[in-house]
Amino acid sequence: PTHSRLRHFLADDDLTWSEQREVLELAAVLKADPYSRQPLAGPQSVAIIFDKPTLRTQASFTAGVAALGGYPMLVDGRLAQVGVRESVPDTARVLGRMTTAIVWRTYAQSALEEMAAHAGVPVVNALTDAYHPCQILADLLTIAEHTGGFTADGPALSGRTLAYVGDGANNMAHSYLLGGALAGLHVRIGAPEDYQPDPAVVKRAAALAAGTGGSVTVLEEATAAVTGADVVATDTWVSMGQEDEKDEREAPFRPFQVNAELLDSAEEGAVVLHCLPAYRGKEITDEVIEGPASRVWDEAENRLHAQKAILTWLVDR
Ligand code: NVA
User: Fold this and answer.
1) Which of 88, 134, 177, 303 has the maximal Cβ count within 10 Å?
2) For 169-256, where are the E strands, in sequence order?
3) By C-alpha distance, which of 221, 190, 188, 224 is closest to 206?
4) How high is the ipTM of this complex?
5) pLDDT-derived band of residue 289, with 50, 70 and 90 as boundaries?
6) How far is the CA of 168 from the centre of ligand 1 (A)?
């Protein structure tokens, strides 16, 4: 199909706040009525490529594409060796001729941007070193479900406070900043001194927050970040590709563990999110992830609904 208004989802702020809200509301519709939209009927193919490990992302994109009437074309990253055996632009042009959209998990954001520039079909970020925007859509849907729904109008989740503690420099932190600010959240990051967010991303998020009534606060302390928060989120201290840094990261990150004591400083009834995989005893305790505040399984399920929504929004235009 020809895309008269070709759009991509490479970073959280590729959507405006109203577009983000539209996608989140569509996700809720698809969750309630999973086969109600068939934008990939044919079946049309969606290429799904992984250059890094995956469980949820592969399961949710393949199941999601099938539920939308399409064919999930898994392209093995180890065989294709995108950017090694064949350049990114060449790969993009070949896949673009055979598919309706391309979903790619890789390292460099610049490679993903190059794919988008040459594919001729929508490209979706299934995680890069820089961002994980599909996860944030799932998280925002989960927050809506567990903290009082979408706001009546305006940005999706105006006024609620989300605290993320842990690695401030990783893809999740950056996507919480951008996607959270877009949703009208007050986003607080608590991260060790040497693992603070990219200042350019903080600046972009602050500019978005100025337009949505949200806010962005970056701290070097966990308790201050979590105090009064409605949502407490964390992620692994060692992201994919950083395995060599495992030992050196242990000491600086220790004070940022999400445990019962830290959770005590959050708002009464606060919910806990974690994109998984979780390392119990490291960034989160077993007690918290298995406890009453945890919404991590709903969050994981919501990947499916959120990604069906963004795919539908991108291809059905
Ligand atoms: N920050 C983590 C997220 C995993 C879904 C990583 O990049 O490994």
Assistant:
1) 177
2) 186-190, 215-219, 231-234
3) 188
4) 0.99
5) very high
6) 12
CA distance 185 to 294: 19
Domains of the chain in start order, with CATH, are 12-131+303-315 (3.40.50.1370), 135-299 (3.40.50.1370)
* Structure confidence at residue 97 (pLDDT): 98
Comparing C-alpha atoms, which of 171, 137, 113 is closest to residue 61? 137
Chain mean pLDDT for the chain: 97
Contact 215, 187 (CB under 8 A): yes
Per-residue pLDDT for 1 more than 60? Answer: no
Pocket probe for ligand 1: among 56, 170, 195, 246, the residue whose CB has the most ligand atoms within 8 Å is 170
Atom number, ligand 1, closest to the C-alpha of residue 129: 7
The residue with tokens 């990114």 is 88
CA 271 – CA 225 distance, rounded (Å): 15
Ligand 1 closest atom vs CA 127: 7
Q: Confirm or deny that 275 is annotated as ligand binding.
A: yes
- For residue 52, report the distance from its CA to the centre of ligand 1, in Å: 10
- If you measure from the C-alpha of residue 171 to the centroid of ligand 1, how many angstroms do you get, rounded to a whole number? 7
20-44 confidence digits (pLDDT tens): 999 999 999 999 999 999 999 999 9
Q: Which two tokens stand for residue 98?
A: 């055979």
Find, among 136, 93, 124, 131, the residue nearest to 311 by Cα: 124
- Reply yes or no on whether the pLDDT at 309 is more than 90: yes
